[in-house]
What we know:
Blueprint: H1 2-22, H2 25-33, H3 53-66, H4 73-88
Bound molecules: heme C.
Amino acid sequence: MRYIIALVMSFGLFGVPVQAESVPLGQLLYDNHCTICHTSVVHVRDERLANSLSEVRRQVSRWQKHLALNWDDSQINAVLQYVNDTFYHFKRDVL
Ligand code: HEC
């Protein structure tokens, strides 16, 4: 029994942080909260709404508000950076 508890604890201590460190915050937040409704396709469709980095920021801010996530600037910026690096590729003038 003691052995099992020690095993579970060691996974708790060493397993989770390693995984969390290897995934960037922006991707973690995006995957957890934003892919419920849309896949990444929404960001690369022809008629996309966001045609500048500040517009992407507005959309990220809009959606986190809509979901009542209460993100601060650093969380919004992390997701903005993630979706920009991954899908939009705008020049980083406002980051
Ligand atoms: C309740 C469903 C839903 C959730 C949850 C959601 N979105 Fe969206 N999102 C949409 C829909 C629908 C659109 C396209 C139509 C629109 O914007 O009205 C969209 C569009 C977008 C766009 C603009 C895409 C373009 O056209 O360039 C961005 C950026 C975006 N979402 C980011 C996010 C982020 C970041 C989150 C998480 C905080 C999120 N969304 C969560 C439904 C959702």
